[in-house]
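Hello Y.,

Per our agreement to keep a running log of every chain we model this quarter, I'm adding this entry. I've kept the format consistent with earlier entries: sequence first, then predicted structure.
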Amino acid sequence: MNSPFHIEEIYSDDGSNALRMPRRQVGNSPQGFAMTLLADYTLRTRAALPSAAIVALLTESGVTTAGARTAISRLARRGVLEGSRHGRRSSYRLSRAAAANLSSGGNWILTSTTAAAQWDGCWTIVAFSLPQDRSAQRRALRSQLRWLGYAPLYDGLWISPYELTPRARTQLEQLTLGTVTVFRGRQDALDSVSDRAPIAAWDIDAINRHYAAFLDRWTSLLPLVSFGQVDGAAAVRARTEVMDTFRRFPTLDPQLPVELLPAGWLRQPARDLFAAVYDGLAHPAEQHVRAVVGRFTDSASLGIRAHTTADLIAGVRGAVGASPEAPSVEWEIPDPTVHCDEVTDRAPAELA
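Predicted structure for the entry above:
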């Protein structure tokens, strides 16, 4: 099972060649911190912040000045950020593609960690075969399958308790070019000790340990948040870190059916703690971001607004960047309510 600090892609690539989201690294990378920071305070408005302000905010979170500048430059080359100049001052904002991607990811983080709908007992199986010389394609496919909530039961055979959405089928077809077959049905268990249950594709004990570590890390901060004793740079730093850590859980635990999980599963307690910290620090963090930006520009507001969990769930549904009130594109997530009555075999041509 992947550690939450070894997942290559947390946010799915939207297929645009102009946008290359950074790979996730062990721990929290400067690029990841920069993306989280801009998404947390400018996603709806795509406000452009002075580069000096972004650097200042990142250094408060422990990133070196050189590392912060390098992260901004690399994100701009990837198409995640758009740069502009006004005299001697340079500013950066999220690109439209990145804002849409991050909006989709934010929605996914919250909806994927809610209580799962009743499961119909069916599994979706994705079987594929790619030649050894197509290793890059294989990595991209595995990354996309992780994003969609799948795990490898065997090499070349990935499973999920939920049905593929039409959009997901199209994405898989584009990545495999006719080398994938999708089935959906129930397990026919063998009366043998060698029988491997599909849920074994996930390391349940390890996932619960990650949840427990998250709870241990953040529970002690809650009283301070409740009494307003975390503010300024500490509030921004805590919100960035709690988001950068919690957003990895949906890939580890993609709404696995509660019927298959041990009693006392920690998904909901972790989600509740995340919401308490992230929302509880929204106001002081926003005030600090405004203050830092105000040191580098005459217009301190610049469309800066702290996101909350309600904003993450709502997503951005209109034209990203039009205005805070003009919501952006709607994004599709796996639908756990689809049921199956029989095993179905979809050939690649039917996946479009």
